[in-house]
Amino acid sequence: MRDAGNGNNKKKNKIKNKRTTITDDTLIDMQLLHNTGKKSCLPEIATVYIPD
Questions:
Q1: What is d(CA 37, CA 28) in angstroms, rounded to the nearest whole number?
Q2: Exposure of 46 by Cβ count < 10 A (0-12 exposed, 13-18 middle, 19+ buried)?
Q3: pTM of the predicted model, to two decimals?
Q4: Among candidates 4, 5, 11, 17, which has minimal Cα distance to 36?
Q5: What DSSP state is assigned to residue 38?
Q6: Are 49 and 35 in contact (CB under 8 A)?
Q7: CB-CB contact of 3 with 38 (8 Å)
Q8: Secondary structure class of 37 (helix, strand, coil)
């Protein structure tokens, strides 16, 4: 399901293009994007997400 106009797809592409080395940190960031990207507008690089 694609949410039009919220900018999440653009941010994902930006991170993918920026971080080319596959590391544990990258995998964690991508997992966080997968889990939270649909609900919130994330910063450029996801670090820690704590639900309320």
A1: 13
A2: buried
A3: 0.19
A4: 11
A5: T
A6: yes
A7: yes
A8: coil
